Amino acid sequence: MSFEKFISEANEAVKFSLKKLEIKNETFNLTEPTRDEFGDLSCNVAFLLTKQLQKSPQMIASMLVEQYHQFRKTDSNSQSYISSVVAHDSGYINFQANLALIGEEVISHILKNDHLRMDIGKGKKVIIEHTSVNPNKSLHVGHLRNVAIGDTIYRILRDTNHDVRVLNYVDDSGLQVADILVGFLFLKFPVTPLNNNIKFDTYCGNEIYVKVNELYEKDPELVEKRKLLLKKLEQGDPEIISFASEITSKVLKDQLRTCWRMKARYDLLNFESHIIISKLWAKTFERLRNENIIIKETEGENAGCWVFGSDVEGTKIIVRSDGTATYIAKDIPYALLKVGTLEDQFKYLAFLKQWDNTTLWRSTTDDLNEANQLNFFPAEDSITVIDNRQTRLQRIIKEILNKFESNSNRYMHLAYGPVLLSNRTAKDLGMESEDQKSVQMSGRKGIFVDADFVLDTLYRKAKEETIKRNPEIAGKDLERTSEEIAISAMRYSLIKNDLEKELKFDMIDSLSLDGNSGPYLQYAYARCCRLIEKSNINSFSGDASILSDPIEYRLIKHLSKYAISIEDTIKNMEPKLIAVYAYELATMFNLFYEKLPILKERDTELSQARISLVEAIRKILKIFISFVGITPLERM
RNA sequence: GGGCCCAUAGUUCAGUUUGGAUAGAAUGGCUGCCUGCGGAGCAGUUGGUCGAGGGUUCAAGUCCCUCUGGGCCCA
């Protein structure tokens, strides 16, 4: 796209001038200046040469710019993306872009192409695993961050020609599931909740899980019972497995409803129990031993254990001396499956139809006729979205993968910081919290904000606003619109921040529909739609040459960088870059809308050009907010 | 004890990868702007010794060292 061409031309120009002055091998930066008056691109090369040339930066900049001007004189025929080059007093070389040319190219490119699909992936197969919540509770806002990040990455990859499969790993035989089984089997919680308004996942998480954990402290025998249950789960005791599966699949279905509400979707559910039953772990264990990746300690405190000697993390126990596998061990076969070191031997059954009409598949270990062999595994790249408390474990898994295939950079842990409750929200939930401190959520202790609760609250607020502004919207339309606004507020707030950092969740702040928020983007989009609708134009011209206002200039420049923004997002795996771009576009559009007449403009030609600009903005905005999982609304 | 991460406006955060021009948003407070294209908007104002100290550099929020405070993981 055009802005890249401008950058590369500026880059060539500097290199050319350096060569003319016989200056060698100087690296330099081209960056966007802090202020509009400095142009569109600045080069710092003059600063870097002061020592070598024994001249002031201003002097050097002038010399270089002089060379460029001489070159342009002899080569004035060809069209240039650079309209001017100035040696600034500060020592910077400032480039002004030829926005007439760029604008023309960009606007007509956006208007002409229906989909604007970029082919970044070239059809490359990518697996992304996200959500992966233990099936013993309902989702809280912390889990939603995982869902939002994972699904946003999925959408971006899918729309840039990657062949993406979305996986959701279900740990249906772990400690947390054992906890609620204790509740059903020993504390006699009824399988059908007495309060029939409560979702089953909420029932398990809020009532049983919390209660059981409370009782562990008073009743050591109960802990023993859990241990026993866990062992039966791991060994595949048919009766327990069957009961557990009944419970976990009920929880899972409720959890999925919340995820779908968030506009996430999946291709496949993998169950940990299947990895055990199918002997995938046994096979993995065998290979780890045969290839001497793990060794058996014969003495010391780890005597009898199978351990992995990590280069960075030290000795890590994989199998305990009593033969049971550690937590990390069970993750290894799944990772090996993703990258293709282990062959996929599962068969698959259609599990559920999703909101987007796609089928969600699940692995099965039963040899049924209707089971299919589908090629979910392996992939060229695999991305696992898990919070950064697991970084250490993930690093070890990656290290083990590298022992099998030394070139393996195909396994990526996409880490993000956990969600904490703000001081205010923690207090509202009745927790004691020191001032200025945020609070860790804990499903076990019942300290969390339920995902559906937040979404419901947001929904009510959005509905109120919608009724106030659009009395004509009612019924299903009103419900749908309010829900889309609620989801947009939630999803945007979960991805707009840096992944690495903890996210402080504040109930009151998160209810805001103003400012840097999802609904703000939707609002800008709806405004665009109304303008287009009212203009009664359905063919748009790409002629941007008469758009000369600085506000239009900034808009066109920003539009010309949309592809760069998408590339950067994928290259760095930073979904927030999408949010930043979209927010800036919406802000610029709102200013444009406020300050310049569009439909009201008397000059027909100018009016048409502005409407075309609006259409281009609308299309790009639609693409970007869709990446985030925000539904573009024509009215709200 | 070992390792990793964080600290920027009253609050929540960008900006640190690749050092560069007057450190930006949002929110809150105050103040303007709808007989005009939708006010979920726009503009103005208020608010910062970029945790502290030292170093490198023509130039440090950004790089290096030390310290303080907070968090996470491992033992």
Short description:
With 636 residues, the chain is α/β, with parallel strands linked by helices. It is built from 23 helices and 17 strands. The strands form four sheets. The protein has a seven-stranded mixed sheet, sandwiched between helices. It has a four-stranded antiparallel sheet with strand order 1-2-4-3.
Cα distance spanning the termini: 33 Å
Q: From the alpha-carbon coordinates, what is the Rg to the nearest angstrom? A: 29 Å
Number of helices: 23
Number of separate strands:
17
Helix-residue proportion: 40-55%
Strand order of the largest sheet: 11-12-7-6-5-13-14
Residues in β-strands, percent: 5-15%
Mean pLDDT: 92
pLDDT < 50 stretches: none
Structural class: alpha/beta
Which term fits the overall shape? globular
* Largest sheet descriptor: 7 strands, mixed
Tell me what you see in this structure.
The chain is built from 23 helices and 17 strands. The strands form four sheets. Strands 11-12-7-6-5-13-14 form a seven-stranded mixed beta sheet, sandwiched between helices. The radius of gyration is 29 Å and the shape is globular. With 636 residues, it is of the alpha/beta class. The protein has helices spanning 2-20, 45-48, 50-53, 57-74, 99-112, 141-158, 175-185, 200-218, 220-235, 238-261, 272-277, 280-290, 327-339, 391-404, 423-428, 451-469, 475-495, 507-510, 518-535, 550-559, 562-572, 576-595, 604-628, and strands at 30-31, 41-43, 82-87, 93-97, 125-129, 163-170, 268-271, 294-296, 306-310, 314-319, 347-353, 359-364, 381-387, 411-416, 419-421, 439-440, 503-505. The model has no long low-confidence stretch (mean pLDDT 92). The chain binds one RNA strand of 75 nucleotides through helix 14, helix 16, helix 19 and helix 22.
